[in-house]
Amino acid sequence: MARKGEQFAGLTVALVTPFRNGDVDEAALRKLVDWHVEMGTNCVCPCGTTGESPTLSHDEHERVIALVCEQAAGRIKVMAGTGSNSTREAIRLTARAEESGADGALMVAPYYNKPMQDGFYQHFKAVAEAVDLPIVLYNIPGRTAKNMEPDTICKLAELKTIVAIKEATGSLDQASQILNGSNLTLLSGDDSLTLPLMSVGGSGVVSVAGNIVPKDVLAMIAAWREGNIAQAQKMHHKLFPLCRDMLGLATNPIPLKGAMQLLGRDTGEVRLPLTPLSEGDMTKLRQTLKTYGLLSS
């Protein structure tokens, strides 16, 4: 049986939001979209956690999504981050993303207010009934403080426009339950778990590492799809130390933006309450990038 949401299989990159002197750097954001088109990235996701959505104003949030859709111009898919812990706000953001031409919406489970399982269901149902845009659920209890249970997710999968899930619980059991009980496309929410999740039926990843090494993530996914397990494993073990060492330094996207700064692709600027890497951690990050082969010695 074909899965809903197959249009989002492969590599979706959770885009950073470039800042310069405190403001969104629109020219740099346009360049990022163009670069991902050149790299062959399947889809970009503006205004997720990696895009520092919690510190974007409502106007900035809508502007970033609209700008990415405009620059994508049909050359690459756009999965707009439109989640909120307010159902009304989630509906508004998703409707605006649809108006802007997004191909889908990535919607994080409501955070902080810790709804009951029926609250999760009613929240996403309300958005699905208000907007026609395909919805990708995003379950990341490490950030939201509460897990959306597999039974809730499988019930949501019965709704026409809920087509996929970004699974970031770190649990292969939970992923297997979702795949067994629904026809959702399942995407990894952790770069280091992409290959393990594909082995049980996942279809790709919403990636942080894809901001700097999209071709390598694409190569791993392609090798798995072609049945070249040894090559997929080789790429997994190439990517793993980069993801572990880079993302282990600080909360995402702090080290990612540091890496992009070192590679000359971002100012490295983050917004409070996030703070840049210390000098010592930047030295460690530089070594990680050298070891991977991204920076010359």
UniProtKB/TrEMBL annotation:
What keyword terms does UniProt attach to this protein?
Amino-acid biosynthesis, Cytoplasm, Diaminopimelate biosynthesis, Lyase, Lysine biosynthesis, Schiff base
Q: Name one GO biological process term.
A: diaminopimelate biosynthetic process
Q: Name one GO cellular component term.
A: cytosol
A GO term for molecular function: 4-hydroxy-tetrahydrodipicolinate synthase activity
Pfam families named in the record:
DHDPS
Q: What is its EC number?
A: 4.3.3.7
Q: Which reaction does it catalyse?
A: L-aspartate 4-semialdehyde + pyruvate = (2S,4S)-4-hydroxy-2,3,4,5-tetrahydrodipicolinate + H2O + H(+)
Intracellular or extracellular location(s): Cytoplasm
Q: Which residues form the active site?
A: 138, 166
State the source organism's domain of life.
Bacteria
Chief subcellular site? cytoplasm
Pathway per its UniProt entry is: Amino-acid biosynthesis; L-lysine biosynthesis via DAP pathway; (S)-tetrahydrodipicolinate from L-aspartate: step 3/4
Site entry (Part of a proton relay during catalysis), positions = 49, 112
Annotated residues that bind pyruvate are located at 50, 206
Question: Which leading EC class covers this enzyme?
Answer: lyase
Supply the SUPFAM superfamilies for this chain. Aldolase (SSF51569)
Q: How does it assemble?
A: Homotetramer; dimer of dimers.
Q: Which family does it belong to?
A: Belongs to the DapA family.
Protein function: Catalyzes the condensation of (S)-aspartate-beta-semialdehyde [(S)-ASA] and pyruvate to 4-hydroxy-tetrahydrodipicolinate (HTPA).
- Note the NCBIfam families from the entry: dapA
Name of protein: 4-hydroxy-tetrahydrodipicolinate synthase
Species this protein is from = Planctomicrobium piriforme
